[in-house]
């Protein structure tokens, strides 16, 4: 596959150089190398334009069919997810319709009005009606999409802290994540990277003197109860990271020196998502590939068969191990979440004396 892609790239580079040489030759006005397009050239290019139109439609349809998830948008796992998916689907449908019409007109007119001896171009100085139409329609459509998008964005960002809201800090550093739960008081203790004390196992720089910090819980795995709103507050220790949870349709940058936040309500447990037919199909496909590379995978000491889990990923290229910066997310029932939380150490008990 790599060799094939390399060959394609080399071919495209060669074509680009060839085209640039032709442009340079044509630009030499008055020189002996200057060329004038003949009717045969115009006809060939007109047919090529129609051929390229067919290629554009074919590659677009193939991309949606083989690579797109629009028909399979059933893996959303947050309450706001379906609304975000609908916004994406509507946007893609509108883009596809506009692209289909404009590309057809562009290529068809190039074919229909190709240069022919004795034909003169019809020139329009202006057309106020057409100008009004293709200005008014995009303005209305884009305004509707933007307003819809703002309402969707607000539903994600404006999460109120209530008694039922779980407050969790996501702490990013090259190249891992830590989660800090607010504990029984549901209030995170103050923290600052300058307070990091490795000797005391205070790896997040939590203020040890803050009463609100004593019952905080620091974990390397994110557990969330289904159906309860979660408010995430994010910090970065070193560089710009991005907390990306694809199945929850959520993403927010983690910026050094400031706290960013977003929230959502998980709607599908991990065990239920594993029963999703689309997820099962993808897992089966991944495992068939892994079984074909069994020796390589076992040589690395990795589990041979893949099992689906929600993941927190970094969506910013933050360094050499960026690809490996991820944390498992487990969505479970309230009872399972409470049982797991009881097993975790409080911040005050995790410090080294």
TrEMBL record:
EC number: 7.1.1.9
PROSITE patterns cross-referenced by the UniProt entry: COX2_CUA (PS50857), COX2_TM (PS50999)
Residues spanning the membrane: 6-24, 44-67, 87-111, 132-151
Residues of the Cytochrome oxidase subunit II transmembrane region profile domain: 64-160
Domain (Cytochrome oxidase subunit II copper A binding) ranges: 163-343
Membrane topology annotation: Multi-pass membrane protein
Main location: membrane
Cell location: Membrane
Top enzyme class: translocase
Alphabetical keyword list: Electron transport, Membrane, Respiratory chain, Translocase, Transmembrane, Transmembrane helix, Transport
UniProt keyword Transmembrane present: yes
Entry's family note: Belongs to the cytochrome c oxidase subunit 2 family.
Protein name per UniProt: cytochrome-c oxidase
Organism this protein belongs to: Psychroserpens luteus
